[in-house]
Amino acid sequence: MKKIKTMAIVALVALSTVSYAQKKVINSNQLPANAQTFIKNNFASNQITSTIEEKENLLSKEYQVILNNGTKIEFDKSGDWEEVDGHHNAIPLKFVPKSIQNYVTKSFPNTHIVKIKKSSRKFEVEISNGLELEFNKKGQFTKIDD
Q1: From the DSSP assignment, how many helices (H) and strands (E) are in the chain?
Q2: CA 123 to CA 142: how far, in whole Å?
Q3: Which of 53, 86, 105, 110 has fewest C-beta within 10 Å?
Q4: What is the pLDDT along the chain (146 residues), one digit of tens a residue?
Q5: Confidence (pLDDT) at 21
Q6: What's the helix, strand, coil split of the chain in %, to 5?
Q7: Are strands 132-136 and 61-67 parallel, antiparallel or unpaired?
């Protein structure tokens, strides 16, 4: 009986999460201040073509910004960047940790970073030759991701 009750609660939480997930188009001035500053400092020459707010559950909110050059930027609810995807084009490096820039420049000359994703524990970097690299949160190389 206890097992069925637990499964029912899990199912209800999952269902409420799925049914609550929604996306809506917002104006770029509705982004958190951190996100607006990030875009201004790193993509000043690009225009924003779309800004989407996504609520995945009652507590989680994310933002997705698409620029006119195809670059996609994802922000968390506070406006801190989580992922920048240049779609095979070089991304600006001002926000990429220096240790990662130096590793890529030294180990993979004639390539550039086309995508970076950060989490609380690591950075995932894709470079222009298609390799995906992982770094710890200090920006130290850990492995090539297959």
Answers
A1: 3, 9
A2: 10
A3: 110
A4: 666 666 666 555 555 555 567 999 999 999 999 999 999 999 999 999 999 999 987 778 999 999 999 999 999 999 999 999 999 999 999 999 999 999 999 999 999 999 999 999 999 999 999 999 999 999 999 999 87
A5: 75
A6: 30, 35, 35
A7: unpaired
Nearest one of 92, 86, 91 to 71, comparing CA atoms: 86
- Phi/psi at 35 (5° precision): -65, -45
From residue 80, give the alpha-carbon distance in Å to each of 33, 73, 74, 83.
9, 10, 8, 9
DSSP 69: T
Residue 11 CA: distances (Å) to CA of 17, 97, 128: 10, 41, 42
Distance CA 76, CA 90 (A): 23
CA–CA dist 81, 118 (Å, integer):
8
- For residues 45 and 3, what is the distance between their CA atoms, to the nearest angstrom? 57
